[in-house]
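Obj: model holo form, ligand = BES.
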Amino acid sequence: MTAPKLALTESDLVGLAADAVVIGTLQGTGGVTLAPGAEAVAAAFDGGLPKLLELLGATGKAEEVVRVPAGDKLATDLLIAVGLGKPEAEGEVTAEQVRRAAGASGRAVAGLKKVASALSALDLGAAVEGTVLGAYTFTQYKSDAGKAPVGKVEFLAAGGATKEHKAALKAHTAIAEAVATARDFVNTPPNDLFPGSFADRAAELGKAAGLEVEVLDEKALRKEGYGGVLGVGGGSERQPRLVRLRYVGPKARRKVALVGKGITFDTGGISIKPAAGMEEMSSDMGGAAAVIATVVLAAKLKYPLEVVATVPMAENMPSGAAYRPGDVLTMFGGKTVEVLNTDAEGRLILADAIVRACQDDPDYLIETSTLTGAQVVALGKRTSGVMGSEEFRDRVAELGSAVGENSWAMPLPEELRADLDSRLADLANITGHRFGGMLAAGVFLREFVAEGVQWAHIDVAGPAFNSGGAHGYTSKGGTGVPVRTMAAVLADIAAND
Ligand code: BES
Ligand code: MN
Ligand code: ZN
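Output (holo structure tokens):
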């Protein structure tokens, strides 16, 4: 999509020429109140604004949008009051409340050329992310694209735009753009986004960002022994790839490996999935999309880290060339895996990629994937499951939740390892039962992580794709989760090791 142009304004929003001005409202016991940032606008209404809003039905509840004609009070014709919900304490709202309200406002101002937002008075970074992501659309395949996203947004920088304001605007704009990049990948249909074209697009983005780029095609994969990627990708006419994107920052003290599942379409293979809802398996590359966007973001924000993304890409199809239940694959690095179900394909391509990533000797490894239906059963559509080494797992889960990508730490129970024992090979790709499916996948992945690497596995099977309507700053379709979690983790490692 074309992202809106963003700027800071020191104007009080009363005299500013724009198509609309956005202010925040709060839900109180005594009715709707105005959030900080709306003071000058309120004064222009001579104190009558809360009463007027109430007459228009405003309550201040989260994501409520109320339009107020303002031509005789403000330089703009339209005032948009967007609900933040109940404040935590006296007038205090969380960053996520601001992000969601800003998201609702970003959707509400579609079609307008220029708007100003007072939500930045509460939290500039959250207002920027929410507004840009709320405005996100993906209309490339529509003959009629409908209303264009808002052209320009000016954020109120009360008391003058400081260096901190400018830095926050820049960082959060880049973060929002990274999320949009990941969404674009997920929303691109699988006839246009297949391993070869996905690798080309990733390489192009990487080059533009000044990254080191390496793409292994099926020949190179065969030569180097990537049995997992080749096994899964073998059933498709469109052969698999492995993409590596490397960023080395200034004074990089820590090395972080990112790995993301890039199944461009998951039919299940010979263990084929039911037809109903299968189209959503075009989002089975959400993890890959997120790590590609994140390593590009790391370069844009010049994190003082080395970040290397290793991204296996394959299409899981049934055909005469497809791998089958009963096959034994020799993975990159030499471990063997008996395939008992070709629909448990993600862990097979990830195993290869994790072993490759660990050859670089990273301090940390973050792997993310739309890995199991069991994640959705356990945690629902909007909470990611985080597994891995305990300390790092908890850090990732906490930082993810803190930026509004709800995450929950999950265990890797020891007893599940024996359930992955195979009659023929070093291990099997599934257990013989339905218990703890998300955890069993994590236990499988652990077998491929090198000793001493602090690692986290983020299962985003539910959160990567929004099958329902738009809400807050989350559009329909690809969500870009967990880009903001990984960005927060990278920033935290850069700051604290
Ligand atoms: N891509 C799916 C997981 C998935 C399910 C993602 C729903 C998003 C929404 C994965 O490859 C898969 O098919 N997993 C199987 C594993 C099973 C065969 C052990 C599953 O969860 O059913
Ligand atoms: Mn599958
Ligand atoms: Zn899959």
